[in-house]
Amino acid sequence: MSEKNWSGNVAYGESSLQRPRTLDELQEVVGRATSVRALGSRHSFNTIAATSGTLISLDRLDSPIEIDSASMSVRVGAGVRYGELGAHLQQHGFALANLASLPHISVAGATATATHGSGDRNGNLATSVRSLTVVQADGSLIEVSRGDADFDGYVVGLGALGIITALTLDIEPTFDVAVSVFEHLPWSALDDHFDEITSAAYSVSLFTNWVNDAVDQVWLKQRVGRHAALGAGAGADAGSAGGASADAGSADAGAGADAVGDFFGARPSSVPLHPLPDVAADACTDQLGVPGAWIDRLPHFRLDFTPSKGDELQSEYLIPREHALAAIDALRALGHRIAPLLFVSEIRTIAADPFWLSTASGRDSVALHFTWKPQQPDVEALLPDLERALAPFGARPHWGKVFATDAAALAPLYDRLPDFVRLADRVDPTGTFRNPFLRATLFGA
């Protein structure tokens, strides 16, 4: 029986699943394969990891986490999940600059698809990568480091350039974060104060169903404590422009939400909330402005719980920041069609990066995320219209989620795509790492 992804909507179709325990075993498997793909934490909703050949899982590969405090870096195995890496770093007094909403995802899979967290000044997770160790199609091993000619092509490589076995990431001293949640932000406030709202904390998330008369929830995640100034956003006072408390959960804000005022017309929640309506907040990280370690606050969800809804689909599109409000208006106009298929949508900001295939490549971006009900035929029927509405804004779909855009439509969105194709042709001339998904979206054949 074929392996399936996290939500069960994709069967990978492999002829064999290999779980090497050593690097030598992995190199041998790749070297003799004619078609091979790597399997991460299975948190993709399309066939990016599918293959009719050999599927490789790195979950048993011997790869210890090695911290180098002198260079402020950590070397980690590709299959390690962010929650596990974060716990190890926190135990030793260190942190990553940012995390995605889920700590359940693997480091290599997340960085290779430009997966991100939130924050005006925070790049996606790939921006912390210093180097990659990669098994090539012939089984040989190479190291690609920041500053190398092809590094910006390799980091967000979609598995098309080889099997990543280990990564070296930037780290920094540990820090605390406080999460404050506000409800019912007027759309007019978002229109009038978009930049102030998204810069009001280190990480900001807006949740909506596109038909309600207000943004349902605003999550502000503010760095606090002695290292708070490192990377603090332009609005490090957590929304004081809208009347919120200056620290939104600083170390002495023990009263939690009661200590926080209005946020541009939104009111603080007095109880913990789940982003999905009518779902208990047990799976979510702590809120109410109570500070805690970065690993316990930057993700939306706790590692020991099934995240989000579980049985779901996801899509996401990144647009240039300057088009954010126009794109939001376009989606609100489609709200009557989106809402019946939707659990919830999230709006986040991501800083520009240099990676050739990153969805934020070369432009500060706003991400428009959709967590869909598991009604794939209906979602797939809607997506072409949704994508047409976003096309004037240069919307780039997240590589690991459900979308309809093909190679012809994607090509104009990535200036360095021709360079990536040439790199792939050079390092994998026989197409060992290509699959139907990559041919349909990248290589056009």
Question: Tally the helices: what do you get?
Answer: 12
**CATH first level of one domain:** Alpha Beta
- Low-confidence stretches at least 5 residues in length (pLDDT < 50)? 229-259
Biggest sheet details = 9 strands, antiparallel
Q: Percent helix among the residues? A: 10-25%
**CA-based gyration radius:** 21 Å
Separation, N- and C-terminal Cα atoms: 28 Å
Beta content: 15-25%
Class inferred from helices and paired strands? alpha+beta
Shape category: globular
The average pLDDT is 91
CATH topology heading of one domain: Alpha-Beta Plaits
Q: Tell me what the CATH architecture of one domain is.
A: 2-Layer Sandwich
Task: Give the beta-strand count.
Answer: 19
Defining key terms:
445 residues; alpha+beta; Uridine Diphospho-n-acetylenolpyruvylglucosamine Reductase, domain 2; Uridine Diphospho-n-acetylenolpyruvylglucosamine Reductase, domain 3; Alpha-Beta Plaits; 9-stranded antiparallel β-sheet; 5-stranded antiparallel β-sheet; 22% helix; 23% strand
